[in-house]
Amino acid sequence: MHDHLIELDWALVLPVMFEDSVIGAIAVGPKRSGDPFYPHDLDLLMTLANQAGIAVKNAQLYTEVVLANEYVENIVATIESGVVAVNPAGRVTMFNRAAERLTALRAEAIRSESVSGLPEVLGTLLRTTLKDGQARTAPEIALHAGSTTRPVICTTSPLRDPGGAILGAVAVFSDLTPLKELEAERQRVERLAYFEVLASSIAHEIKNPVVAIKTFTQLIPRRLHDHAFLENFSRVVSREIERMEPRRPPASERSGRVPQAGLGGERADAPGHAHSGRVLRPRRRG
C-alpha cells in the first residue's frame, strides 16, 4: 500500500464517512515544505473529511428531492384533472395545466398567492380542509372561469407529515361537461328509440284497417249486385274505421272528472292530462 501511495505521489488517504459508511476518499499529497504531517494536521484533515461527507450526502439528498419533485410535477402536468395544492398558510404551491384551463388562471400569477385568489368554490373547500383536516368531496359544483361556468366534481384532502401534522391541502377537480353531454345524448337516443317504436305501432294499427278497406273497395266493381258481399263490406269497413278513431282511455287511466267532448271536436282534457294530445269527437247515432 505504501509503495502504491509513493507511485501516485500521495501522502495520505482520508475516508469520507457518513453514518458509519464510506462514501468517498480524500487524497492528500506531501507537503511542499517536505515536513511530515503532525497530529494537528491530521485532526484538521479529518474534520475536513467529515464535513465533506455531510456535504456530499446533503447534495445527494437534495438531488433526489429535486428529481422526485420534477417527477411529481410531470405526472401532475399530464393528467386531465385540475390539481391545486396549498401550504398550511393557505398559499398556492402547485397549480397544474389542467387547473389553468379549468379556472382561466395562469400558474405563474397564482402560485405563491393566497387561496383567496382561486375561484370561490375551490378556495372555500381548501380552507375548510385546512381548518378541520377532513377530506371531502363535492359531487357537482359550478366552477366559474371568466365568462364560462362548468360543472365539476371536486375532492379535497389534507396533506400530513408522519406525525399527523397538517402540511397543507390538495384539491383535485374534473370537468363534468363531457359526461353531461354523453348523458344528454343517451337520453336523446332513448327518446328517438321510443318514438320509433311508437311510430311503428301507429303505422301497424293504421295499416291493418286500410288494407281491409282497400281490398273490399277493389272487389266492389265486380260484386256490386252481391247483397251479402255489400252487407259484409259495410260491416267490416265500419268496424275498421272505428278502430282508427280515437278512443277514450280506460277508467283506470282517468283521474278527476270525466273529460267532456269539446264543440266541433275541440280538445277537452281532464286534469292531469293537459298534454295527452287526445281529441274527443261526438259519436254519430243511427
Overview of the structural elements:
- The chain is rod-shaped.
- The protein contains seven helices and seven strands, in the order H-E-E-H-E-E-H-H-H-E-E-E-H-H.
- The chain folds into three domains: 2-70, no CATH class; 80-175, 2-Layer Sandwich (Beta-Lactamase), CATH 3.30.450.20; 181-250.
- The protein has 286 residues and is α+β, with helices and mostly antiparallel strands.
The number of distinct helices, counting runs of at least 4 residues, comes to 7
Instruction: Write down how many β-strands occur, each being a DSSP E stretch of 2 or more residues.
Output: 7
Overall structural domain count:
3
Q: Which ranges are low-confidence, i.e. pLDDT below 50, for 5 or more consecutive residues?
A: 256-286
Radius of gyration: 44 Å
The CATH homologous superfamily of the largest domain is named PAS domain
Under CATH at level 1, the class of the largest domain stands as Alpha Beta
Note the topology.
Elements: H1 2-8, E1 12-18, E2 21-28, H2 39-78, E3 82-86, E4 92-95, H3 97-103, H4 107-110, H5 120-132, E5 136-145, E6 148-160, E7 166-175, H6 177-219, H7 227-244
Antiparallel strand pairs: 1-2, 3-4, 3-7, 5-6, 6-7
Helix pairs in contact: 6-7
